[in-house]
Structure formats: structure tokens, C-alpha cells
């Protein structure tokens, strides 16, 4: 299959949007930008189209998909009910990087929900995502547009690298602003809980009156089935070193001196000066006072290590900021749990 790569111009995008919409209506696959990461979209109402997503990504079929809609009216058609706590979330954070798990309506195929009675729904605010949904006139099922197990794509070039020849079209809308996947909140029971942390934090949700409960791992089924799979894994082996900055930099210097493979260091802008005169690349993740910069760079940097042949990465921990839970959820997974506390 030839993958068409289009970088539409916002003032002259009718051709690109019509073409993408036609592909979706004909059960094809279109990768498109959202404010979090690129999604790999298919008509959510077509089981045949949805199955193609799993094939192209190599995704296990028991891992359900998020459906993207343009507005609340479209969302209502896919849910059996919207409880008051979910109404609050919709009012304050949608459109945006928040996904709501709700009881599904009959029109949602089980191919999307992997057999569950609930459905994950999101109203993206990225203008390309909005335009695509509206032009197609369809709800769009879309997981992150990476090969299964790789870091999520935050640039169209990442999608091309992973999925060239496996999907019909890639819409290049530039870099994704947020850089990590949406916060997922389960509103399908009377005890809402965060299933996946993101840039809409627990504090933000609580501040508008949403009562959050602990999610219960180890129940009869994983609540966000995707979370059980190895995620965000670059080829490089990452080790996170957590502790006071100067002690961390000492430890990283020692580990670098003992490393026999091509090695890199990941640190904050604030601590960059602690890594002078080391003979390996020192890569700045972002500014801890502006944690959005770290979130939006993270996946790009994980991919960069692989591209540059860096096989071992020693990283600072970036937990001490409002987005720390979301950032470290991704980085710790990329590290496969290899964390040293000092
Ligand atoms: O920001 C995002 O959420 C991106 C963009 C493209 O929207 N999408 C994304 O999709 O990250 P994906 O497929 O990579 O992750 C979706 C997660 C998986 O962990 C999946 O198990 C969970 O959502 N999920 C989907 N439907 C669910 C449901 N009904 N109940 C619980 N978890 C669900
Ligand atoms: Mg994903």
C-alpha cells in the first residue's frame, strides 16, 4: 500500500480534508494530529475499518480504542448515559486532552471496546482533528499512531517511520502541543478514577468539583487494558536515577564511566550545568519550571536516542512538578521499571 503524506495549508485544505474524509468513509486509515499525540484513525462505526487499525499497529485485539468526536452532541450518541461528574469534566476540560470512559450506547461496535460495555471518548481541540471529524461526519476511533510498543508519535515524521506502507494517509499538522497521551478518567461507575495520568491532573479535576477515587489494580480485568502492555519502549535501555540533583549527577557520572555502550544523559535545563565535561551527549528534556516543555519533548527524545544509536540512557527523574505523575508514568515505563533511588 502507498501511504499518502500530506501537509495541508490551513487556508487551502479542502482537497486534503475531502481526501482524508473519503478514505475514512471507505474504511481506510488516516493518521492525524491531536494536541496530545498523533492518532491512527478509522470510522469508529465500522468493525471492518477498526480491525485494520489493530493490523497496521500490531496491536493486541483485547486493547480497546478511544473514539474521537467533534462535540458533545456527537459524544451523546455513543454513550448510554452521562453522569453529573462526567458533565463537569466535559464542561471544564473538553475539548482538550481528557478521555472519558462511559457506558457505551448500542451504536458502538464491540470491535472498538474490545468487548467491554464501556467506551472511551475524547473531544480533541486540535483544529486538524476537529476539521477531519467534521468533514468525515463520523466518530473516529484512534489509538496513538505508532507501532505497538514504540513511543507515541508527536510528529508526522514519527508516524511515517513506524507505519509507512501500512496505512492510507498521514496528515502532517506539525508538532503536538502536549506531547503525552490524554488523561483517562473512568466515569462509568459511581466512583470516578484516573486510569491514565496526563496533563489534565487530579488537582485540576478536583478543583472543579470532581470527586476522584483510587483505581483498583488487580481486579478481575485491567481497567485500562492497554496499561498492562509494555509501552513507550525505545530500543535504548533507560535507567532513571531519583534523588537530590547533585547526588544524582555524581551517580550518573559514575554509571557513564562504567558504561561500555554508546551512552547518553537526559536532564533538566536547570541541572544541565551539573553535567559539564562529560564525554557523552547530554540531552535537555525541558524546563522543570515549565513542565509542559518536558512532556512535549519526551517522546521525540526517546525516538532520538534510537536514531542516534544511543543504547544506554541515564536520566534524572522529573517528578517534582505539577505534571510529574504523568511524565514519570511514561518515563518509568520507557525505562521498563529500571529506577535507582539514592
Ligand atoms: O491522547 C490520546 O489519548 C491519544 C490520542 C490519539 O487521542 N490516544 C491514545 O490511544 O493514547 P491509545 O490507544 O494509545 O490508548 C488508549 C488507552 C489504552 O490504554 C486503552 O486500554 C484505554 O485507553 N481504553 C480504551 N477504551 C477503554 C475502556 N472502555 N475502558 C478502559 N480503558 C480503555
Ligand atoms: Mg498508545
The total count of helices amounts to 11
Alpha-beta classification: alpha/beta
Q: Beta-strand level of the residues, as a percent range?
A: 15-25%
Shape: globular
Gyration radius (Cα, Å) is: 20 Å
User: How many strands in all?
Assistant: 15
Distance between the termini: 51 Å
How many strands, what sense, and barrel or not for the largest sheet?
10 strands, mixed
The molecules bound to the chains, other than polymers, are: threonylcarbamoyladenylate, magnesium ion
Q: What level of helicity do the residues show?
A: 25-40%
Order of helices and strands: EHEEHEHHEHEHEHEEEHEHEEHEHE
How is the largest sheet built, in terms of strand order? 1-8-2-3-7-4-6-5-9-10
> Poorly predicted ranges (pLDDT <50, ≥5 residues)?
none
Chain-wise SSE layout:
Elements: E1 4-6, H1 14-25, E2 30-32, E3 39-43, H2 47-57, E4 66-68, H3 72-76, H4 84-93, E5 98-103, H5 110-113, E6 118-122, H6 127-136, E7 140-141, H7 156-163, E8 169-171, E9 183-186, E10 193-196, H8 202-207, E11 237-242, H9 245-258, E12 263-268, E13 282-286, H10 291-307, E14 312-316, H11 324-334, E15 339-341
Parallel strand pairs: 1-8, 2-8, 4-6, 5-9, 11-14, 11-15, 12-13, 12-14
Antiparallel strand pairs: 2-3, 3-7, 4-7, 5-6, 9-10
The structure holds threonylcarbamoyladenylate and magnesium ion.
Threonylcarbamoyladenylate (TXA) binds next to strand 5 and strand 6.
Q: What do these coordinates show?
A:
- The chain has eleven helices and 15 strands.
- The strands form two sheets. Strands 1-8-2-3-7-4-6-5-9-10 form a ten-stranded mixed β-sheet, with helices on both faces.
- Helix 10 runs parallel beside helix 11.
- The longest helix is centred in the last third of the chain and has 17 residues.
- The protein binds threonylcarbamoyladenylate and magnesium ion.
Amino acid at each position: 500500500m502507498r501511504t499518502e503524506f500530506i501537509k495541508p495549508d490551513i487556508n487551502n485544505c479542502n482537497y486534503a480534508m475531502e481526501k482524508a474524509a473519503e478514505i475514512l468513509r471507505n474504511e481506510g486509515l488516516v493518521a492525524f494530529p491531536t494536541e496530545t499525540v498523533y492518532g491512527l484513525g478509522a470510522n469508529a462505526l465500522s468493525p471492518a475499518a477498526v480491525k485494520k487499525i489493530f493490523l497496521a499497529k500490531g496491536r493486541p485485539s483485547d486493547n480497546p480504542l478511544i473514539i474521537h468526536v467533534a462535540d458533545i452532541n456527537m459524544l451523546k450518541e455513543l454513550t448510554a448515559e452521562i453522569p453529573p461528574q462526567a458533565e463537569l469534566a466535559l464542561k471544564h476540560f473538553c475539548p482538550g486532552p481528557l478521555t472519558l470512559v462511559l457506558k457505551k450506547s448500542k451504536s458502538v461496535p464491540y470491535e472498538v471496546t474490545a468487548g467491554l460495555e464501556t467506551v472511551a471518548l475524547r473531544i480533541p481541540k486540535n483544529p486538524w482533528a476537529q476539521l477531519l471529524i467534521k468533514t468525515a461526519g463520523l466518530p473516529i476511533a484512534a489509538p496513538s499512531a505508532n507501532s505497538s510498543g514504540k513511543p507515541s508519535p508527536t510528529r508526522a515524521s514519527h508516524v511515517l517511520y513506524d507505519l509507512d506502507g501500512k496505512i492510507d494517509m498521514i496528515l502532517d499538522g506539525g508538532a503536538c502541543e502536549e506531547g503525552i497521551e490524554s488523561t483517562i478518567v473512568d466515569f462509568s461507575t459511581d466512583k470516578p478514577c484516573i486510569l491514565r495520568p496526563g496533563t489534565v491532573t487530579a488537582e485540576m479535576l478536583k478543583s472543579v468539583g470532581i470527586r476522584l477515587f483510587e483505581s483498583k489494580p488487580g481486579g478481575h480485568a485491567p481497567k485500562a487494558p492497554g496499561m498492562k502492555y509494555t509501552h513507550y519502549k525505545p530500543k535504548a535501555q533507560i535507567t532513571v536515577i531519583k534523588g537530590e540533583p547533585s547526588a544524582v549527577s555524581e551517580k550518573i557520572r559514575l554509571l557513564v564511566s562504567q558504561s561500555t555502550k554508546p551512552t547518553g544523559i537526559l536532564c533538566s535545563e536547570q541541572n544541565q550545568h551539573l553535567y559539564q565535561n562529560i564525554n557523552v551527549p547530554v540531552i535537555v528534556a525541558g524546563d522543570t519550571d515549565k513542565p509542559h516543555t518536558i512532556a512535549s519533548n519526551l517522546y521525540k527524545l526517546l525516538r532520538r536516542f534510537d536514531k542516534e544509536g544511543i543504547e544506554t540512557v541515564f536520566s534524572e527523574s522529573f517528578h517534582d512538578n505539577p505534571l510529574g505523575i504523568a511524565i514519570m508514568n511514561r518515563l518509568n515505563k520507557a525505562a521498563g521499571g529500571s529506577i535507582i533511588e539514592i
